[in-house]
Design goal:
Blueprint: H1 2-13, E1 19-23, E2 29-34, E3 41-46, E4 49-56, E5 59-61, E6 64-67, E7 71-86, E8 94-108, E9 115-123, E10 126-133, E11 138-144, E12 147-150, E13 156-160, E14 174-177, E15 184-185, E16 189-193, E17 198-204, E18 212-218, E19 221-226, E20 235-238, E21 241-242, E22 245-251, H2 254-258, H3 262-265, E23 282-287, H4 289-292, H5 315-328, E24 332-335, H6 364-374, E25 377-383, H7 388-404, E26 409-413, E27 421-424, E28 430-433, H8 438-453, E29 457-460, E30 476-479, H9 499-502, H10 546-555, E31 560-562, H11 567-571, H12 574-582, E32 587-596, E33 600-607, E34 618-624, E35 629-634, E36 644-651, E37 664-671, E38 676-681, E39 686-693
Parallel strand pairs: 23-24, 23-31, 24-25, 25-26, 26-29, 29-30
Antiparallel strand pairs: 1-2, 2-3, 3-4, 4-12, 5-6, 5-11, 7-8, 8-9, 9-10, 10-21, 10-22, 11-20, 12-19, 13-14, 13-16, 15-18, 16-17, 17-22, 18-19, 27-28, 32-33, 33-34, 34-39, 35-38, 36-37, 36-39
Helix pairs in contact: 5-6, 7-8
The structure holds 1-deoxynojirimycin and calcium ion.
The site of calcium ion has 5 residues, from loops.
Length: about 700
């Protein structure tokens, strides 16, 4: 003990000449850069308490001296911003950007030609910093040394999924003491302290760089772990460059993380020009769930080369879905499995996919013309199975075909495990890549920017994580990048009841997600198929109540929402279906108002005025984990003086996800801002409410 005191005293004597502090506008967060001990370091305090202790900055390079010590701060400059900007679509129309900035130059003590800047922006609800490199010739980064060294790590719980892993970002969250984070961890990763401090680590504006995961080196010290390129290096750069922003959200409440716009504020403004009218938020149905529950197939032939007899993407079936979409006011119909390449083992045969040649039982012109007459758009699908080069070779032709057919949105897919995306290098050699390695990050942006030329928006599945690039490219309309509803179909272990009670505080911080909510029939083929003897569990289907399926439309933000189930399953339950028909996907205001990570969330949103939406209605979605709970929500968010009809879709008194998921009560009540909504959420239940302005 005495030794420790002596060491600390010695350190405190060597306080550097350059301690540069930048605080949030409300002073709750203070970030300090220092060159003490000739290291480039930063520390952060929150509410006057150290949250991140001295944490190193730096890099190592191939065939060049590392930049991690012998630093001196030689220059600083400051800036402050308080402005507003408007999203073309989103969870919140107007976003405030209020931050203080510092730019710090770290010079190498002896080699003056080698230096970098760190630009930091501190907001009231978090901060971001990035490295800015001048032109120092070619740079090949072999390690990023950025640390996030959290204090009091024995008092913190972490919510995380693996990074750079076999199933990409499609994992259920692990809840562990921070000190027991294992292996490489994906971001956003969330940390909750016993004293209520909530933290999430992520990055913003991931462009031409490797995705950043984290590795816990000791107690609370998390170190950046870049996703490797196929050649084993991390990032190749020439000329001046900036890294993505390393971002940390901080708040007193779990909901502070959800309500933060730091990530979007750290991204560059829209690059697609003023006319964005071709980017269309909306709702869709699709020839999709039937494949996942084995009622139809993507390809025409099975693995043995025999006709399956139940090919999904036929002209007839598409027309049927379009009739259904038109009848109920959906904007589009997604059709998967329309193009040649799905027969046999489509996951392994990525090189066989054609993006222009349809199967002979799918007439793309007939269906898109049919849809046009009904006011329903065909939604395109490009599954690549991770064949990047095969896709890039055909991408423009694929977009041109769809554009000719009036398609405005394409869902893409990159089903390939782990480091298995296939990219041919300049010499024609096939390279195997992670979803977030530098070249794949660039591929995704190339895909989005090229699609914009054809007035097409992209919904990427098996995508690199979202880092807020929808601000710069508003046609990157949604992505998957998490364990979606598809896992509940029975081909994998279903999502556990707590999954959706963790997602708003982790994956959804990167927002928006094409989760594909709205399964209404829980009794399809694989339910209780007796897999327990294989270590599988009972209930191979959504482990939610029906009301929770509805709550997902409000809780899990996306500008495009699918009604994922089969048309006949909706027609069998028209009353709860009404909520899906009513709920908008574009919002004026959004706010999480109650909740705890891994337990529950109460989310409210006000509709944005557009097409059939008046802009006056409010919506509420709340959901819980495996615990039933009573929520009490003062309706103070409603417009003062207005009366609303609250259309409430809640769990019935006997509802339970496991044995009584369909028990739902739908009731209407007049309310004003002075009322309180008291509702019981069943085990893995939820509630969805439309407050219709009268
Ligand atoms: C995985 C996607 O997430 C899913 O939605 C899609 O149906 C399949 N890949 C096939 O492309
Ligand atoms: Ca997927």
């Amino acid at each position: 003990m005495r030794l420790l005191i002596v060491v600390l005293a010695a350190l405190s004597l060597s306080v550097s000449a350059a301690d540069i502090t930048v605080t949030s506008p409300d002073k709750s967060i203070a970030m300090t850069f220092t060159d003490k001990n000739e290291l480039a370091q930063y520390a952060v305090s929150f509410n006057g308490k150290t949250l991140i202790q001295d944490s190193k900055l730096g890099f190592t390079f191939l065939k060049a001296q590392p930049l991690y010590r012998d630093f001196k701060v030689t220059e600083i400059s400051r800036d402050s911003v308080d402005s507003e900007w408007e999203q073309p679509w989103g969870e919140q129309r107007v976003i405030r950007d209020n931050h203080n900035e510092v730019l710090v130059r770290f010079d190498h003590l002896t080699d003056k030609a080698r230096y970098f800047f760190v630009r930091a922006r501190v907001f009231n609800d978090g901060f971001g910093f990035r490295y800015e490199f001048p032109d120092q010739g070619e740079k090949v980064i072999t390690r990023e040394l950025t640390e996030f060294w959290f204090t009091d790590s024995h008092k913190a719980t972490a919510y995380w999924i693996p990074g750079q892993a076999r199933e990409r970002h499609e994992y259920e969250y692990r809840t562990t003491p921070l000190q027991q984070m294992e292996g490489i961890v994906n971001t956003p990763a969330t940390i909750v302290y016993d004293d209520g401090t909530h933290v999430a680590i992520h990055e913003a504006a991931l462009v031409d760089f490797a995705g950043m995961s984290l590795k816990k080196e000791q107690t609370g010290r998390l170190v950046a772990k870049l996703s490797p390129r196929a050649d084993g290096t991390m990032v190749r750069k020439s000329g001046a460059f900036n890294t993505p922003w390393r971002m940390v959200l901080v708040g007193d409440e779990a909901t502070d993380l959800v309500n933060s716009y730091v990530m979007l504020n750290l991204n560059e403004p829209n690059k697609l020009g003023n006319d964005l009218s071709w980017i269309e938020p909306g709702k869709y149905v699709g020839i999709w769930w039937c494949m996942h529950i084995d009622l139809c197939t993507w390809g025409q032939l099975d693995g043995a080369g025999k006709p399956t007899g139940i090919h999904g993407a036929t002209t007839e079936r598409t027309k049927h879905y379009m009739d259904f979409a038109a009848k109920y006011g959906f904007d589009g119909v997604l059709v998967e499995g329309w193009n040649v390449g799905w027969d046999g083992d489509w996951i392994a045969n990525s090189e066989l996919f054609s993006f222009t040649q349809a199967y002979d039982d799918f007439d793309i012109k007939t269906v898109s013309d049919y849809g046009k007459k009904l006011g329903v758009r065909l939604i395109g699908h490009h599954e690549t199975s991770g064949g990047i080069t095969n896709y890039e070779a055909q991408m423009e032709d694929g977009f041109a075909l769809y554009q000719k057919m009036g398609v405005r949105q394409i869902k893409t897919g990159y089903v390939a495990h782990g480091q298995n995306l296939k990219r041919k290098d300049a010499d024609g050699v096939m390279r195997y890549e992670f979803t977030d390695s530098q070249d794949v990050v660039n591929h995704f942006i190339h895909n989005i920017a090229t699609a914009a030329k054809y007035n097409i928006s992209i919904n990427t599945h098996e995508s690199v994580k979202d880092t807020g690039l929808r601000r710069t490219y508003p046609n990157w309309i949604a992505r998957e990048s998490a364990r979606g509803q598809e896992y509940n179909s029975g081909w994998g272990a279903p999502n556990q009841p707590e999954h959706l009670a963790i997602m708003p505080y982790t994956r959804m911080l990167a927002s928006p997600m094409d989760f594909t909510p709205g399964i209404f029939d829980f009794e399809y083929k694989r339910i209780n198929f007796g897999g327990e003897e294989h270590g599988l569990q009972k209930h191979m289907r959504p482990q939610t109540t029906l009301a929770k399926q509805l709550a997902e439309y409000v809780v899990l933000y996306s500008p495009i929402q699918m009604a994922a189930d089969l048309p006949e399953n909706y027609e069998a339950k028209l009353e709860p279906f009404q909520f899906i028909l009513d709920v908008p996907t574009d919002w004026e205001v959004s706010k999480a108002i109650q909740g705890d990570v891994g337990e529950y969330i109460v989310q409210i949103r006000k509709e944005r005025k557009a097409r059939q939406y008046s802009g006056n209605d409010w919506y509420l979605g709340a959901l819980t984990d495996e615990q039933a709970r009573d929520i009490s929500v003062p309706l103070t968010f409603l417009d003062a003086g207005k009366t609303y009809e609250a259309q409430i879709y809640r769990d019935g008194d006997a509802a339970h996800w496991a044995d009584n998921p369909y028990d739902i009560v739908i009731e209407k009540r007049r309310v004003t801002a002075t009322d309180t909504l008291n509702v019981r959420l069943a085990e893995s239940g939820g509630v969805a409410v439309r407050f219709k302005a009268l």
